[in-house]
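RECORD CONTENTS
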Amino acid sequence: MATKEELLKVLEPNGQEQILTYWDELDENQREQLAQQILEIDWPTVTKWAANALKGESAPIPFDKLTPAPYHALVPETEEEKAFQAKAYQHGVELLKNGKVAAFTVAGGQGTRLGYDGPKGTYEVSPAMHKSLFQIFAEALLRNQAKYGCKFTWYIMTSKINDAATRAFFEKNHYFGLEKEQVKMFKQAMLPAFGLDGKALLAAKDSLALSPNGHGGSFVALRDSGALEDMKKKGVTILSYWQVDNPLIKVMDPLFIGLHDMTKSDMSSRALIKRDYAEKLGHFCILDGKMIIVEYSDMPVELAKQEDKPGRLAYRAGSPAMHVMSVDFIDRITSGTLEFNPHRANKKVPYINDNGELVVPESPNAIKLEFFLFDALPLAKNPLVLEACRDEQFAPVKNKEGEDSPATCRAAYLARGRKWLRAAGVVLPEGMEVELSTKSFVDEDDVKEFVKGGHLPPLKPNCINYVE
């Protein structure tokens, strides 16, 4: 274990020696924990990030040079586009059948905003069976395995705060029918929270106030964990990426995957057409020939409201954080130092004060630093954007109540089921709802085939039926 003197040599040049204020009060185990946390952090770099964030020093966006990014419409308008999409779809099917695609979910957060004490992926969200987010995804992968005749590896990025609980959850539930070897978990890095004076905060006398470094930390984590090397050994060339809070995601999308590969894109993205200019989705834009995402909070109102034809926003393509990425691209950008700058978030962070007392602030007292995955877009060759169907693929669970809550998610889940059943010729009467299991249904065609085969059981009125 490092001594106090050795740790001071790390901290003092960066003005962070206050971290050792209570060192002499700690027992051996507590000292070992704190020393390990200190030595895992690149203090010169992290302290510089914090100082720049506190000064508000980030490169200003020259909005006069910004243009809306082009995107592929979900419904093609010309015969040529229809033919191209049909070819891309079949190409995606072949890639899936040949085992060229793996799944990747970022799941390092807790369900704090939901009032839930546990990893967010363990939160129960399905309307009738109360399946967790992880179960919904696992069963969707099982269905895709049956469709394409192959096994998919599922990489899941956890964090120190939820890794053990996530692993235990999967063990307890026998990996929801997947083989244990198919599910590869690894942890993302943690970063300290900084007070408004630039000093790292202590959550306890023997621990820094740490939080996950954001989904943009996944690139380096994939390499450092050995996941990237594992993909190469298995012949995986493409990753289907999604965040853990969206149970409507199409975990394996042959059209999206096929378009990505046929256009030789490094990193492809789905887009939602914004409901209005103020919707909280980042904007796909082009700046100096590079694709970027401008956060909704950074976009000038007059630009966000700009129209390219009456009633249609110019900057209408918004990012719901659905991506397909090439393994070679991840390998390339992580082969040296990945030059990302973290984003600042103002937070209320409990901390130990100078008197050794725990303070729970009532207003933001600190900043947290996190990396965003979309910051890799300017590094990508041939980035592609494909429109997504909001009703079928996007209903995140972020807030306890209101917008993007469990209630709105469950309503969207049921609405998608009604839509797919209607397309198959089944119209539900008032008061009858159906939860369609992802174990059997991952797209409209699955439902049509099921109904055509006469497999739909009798449905009960005035309740939520479950069909698998």
